Amino acid sequence: MKRKEVKVEATTVKSRLIPKALIGKNGIRHEITKVLFCAHPTDDEFEGIRYTVSFSGAETYLYLIDDRWYVQVV
To answer: Residue 19 to residues 24, 43, 44, 69: CA-CA distances in angstroms?
Structure first.
């Protein structure tokens, strides 16, 4: 799996971190329209916390690993 580090605007709701937007390299803000799922790893499946998010009309995985955000690159 390839991933790319990104900046993310997030908020905390009931002690859970919820991503709200991705900030592109050029500073363009991409609103996350929906957080579909949040998963923690089992059996070394992936690192960190994996969010399934919808933005710009597509679904993708967003990872939070050691206070850094990554998006899955296809």
So the answer is: 14, 25, 23, 10
Cα 56 to chain centroid, rounded: 14
What are the residue boundaries of the structural domains of the chain, listed by start? Answer: 2-73
Residue 38 reports pLDDT greater than 80: yes
Amino acid at 39: A
pLDDT number for residue 70: 92
Burial category of 60 from C-beta neighbours within 10 Å (exposed 0-12, middle 13-18, buried 19 and up): middle
- Sequence-distant (6+) residues with CB within 8 A of 55 are 21, 22, 30, 31, 32, 33
